Amino acid sequence: MKEIYTEIEIQAPDHQVWKILTDFDNFPTWNPFIRRVSGEVREGSHLEVQIQPPGKNEITFKPKVLRVMPNRELRWLGHFIIPGLFDGEHIFLIQSLTINRTHFIQREIFRGILVPFFTRQLETNTCQGFAEMNRALKMRSEQSESTEKV
User: Fold this and answer.
1) Mean pLDDT computed over 12-17
2) Which residues lie in coiled coils (predicted)?
């Protein structure tokens, strides 16, 4: 098992962060890591997700949505070829700190027999991609929040 964990504080309310995180149609305009997502934000549905870790080629996979808790959590599980080879449970957590301050956590738990062969890439490129996405989500959420106040 291998876990990647990143977090960031965002100066925007939880509902604003959730709105941007689940607006898949606009991912290509702001998200440097998860370049495209299609499908429904609904437990049990399957998404099509295209990621591009820094310095790597795009990868497309079709995870199943495990949990949807509006303004709180989105979780999906993807597999490489067949379950048990290389599985990734991706978790987005949104925690309200105050009315206009949110703690955002992005993590992924990797399991499977191939995970040890990709540990270095996960610790570098994938982790960097998570951090870049977090910063972009922060920027977009804070810009959206300031625009709505005007």
Assistant:
1) 97
2) none
Query: In this predicted structure, what is the pLDDT of residue 60?
Result: 94
Expressed as residue numbers, the domain containing 114 is 2-149
For the chain, state the CA radius of gyration: 15
- 25, 79, 98, 112 from 41: Cα distances, Å: 12, 19, 25, 26
Query: Helix, strand or coil for residue 53?
Result: coil
Which among 60, 59, 63, 93 has a CA at the least distance from the CA of 76?
63
49 CB neighbour count, 10 Å cutoff: 21
The rounded percent of the chain whose pLDDT value lies above 70 is: 96
Contacts of 19 (CB under 8 A, 6+ apart): 144
Neighbour count for residue 137 (Cβ, 10 Å) = 23
CATH of the domain at 69: 3.30.530.20
